[in-house]
Amino acid sequence: MASAYRNHNDKELVAKLRQGDEVALSEIYERYWDRLFVVATNRLDNQQEAEECVQDVLYKLWRLREKLHVENDDLSAYLAVGIRNQVFNRRLKRHRERLRETGYEIPETKNPSPEQLLIAQELQQRIDRAIKSLPSQCRIVFELNKTEGKTIKQMANQLGISENTVKYHLKKANRDIRGNLDLGAWLVMLTYFF
Question: CA-based angle 141:147:153, to the nearest 5?
Fold first, then answer.
């Protein structure tokens, strides 16, 4: 049944999804499941948790479909950010559980304050702007690594460049992004998340 939308582009699928079209969601599932799962598995090293993260991202996509705003109609980037956030939350949960096992209690922040949400949004916008300002080759390497979870070898093969060149672009991207974010933003992030 999802094959009816196989030739639709992401913009068309998002429009149908907003109208509550479950077939559009099925097509998005078929189109993006594997990619999201690979990224989550690479970052979590746990298939069950990775599956749960992907399910959570797709469930949230469906739940928020009427308010869905996909910048530049780039569903792939939107889902990449979603899986990144789910993985981050899962890893943070693991970290908290390990701390509790050692007897250290962390205050729960299930309901962050409006100020915390605003700070997190502003920081995410700064990070996104810093990524967009990277030279094109650096940005491509950075996004392949961070959003798709590709290894240095995989990126070198895909882009037809040496592994050393990939490493150079990754280092440059990380250095440039850190340079575009002031120290205060990093401190806010550390305070907010840890």
Answer: 45
